[in-house]
Design goal:
single chain; 125 residues; OB fold (Dihydrolipoamide Acetyltransferase, E2P); 2 helices; 8 strands; disordered N terminus
Length: 125
Amino acid sequence: MIAVALLYGPYNAKVVNVIDAETLWLKVAVWPGEDRTMKIGVLGVDTPSLNGKCDAEKLMAKEALEMTRAFVGDLVRLNDVRKSKTNGKFYARVRNRRGKLLSEALIEAGYGVPYRKGEKVNWCP
């Protein structure tokens, strides 16, 4: 089990870059007049890797990345922000301007599965 610290939220954030379908560089408004740029992992979803084991996984990862870019646009809202005590990475539920969850959209589109700790998904045929 990953130990996490639950932080306050929600936070509004400007999208700086989409690294992959489930990892974003965001400029987060943490306090009035104070922003922090940080890498945020998307809670609740596992997607194919851009460095996947086969061409099918790599292609699917590129398509998922493009879907994430289109879905999030330039602004998102973060809820349930957590910082892992084991790796220091931040995770959050990411919503677009319409309030839709990115994790659910990726799963519904077939580009992701619900994240289950310790389970590896085989994206290759």
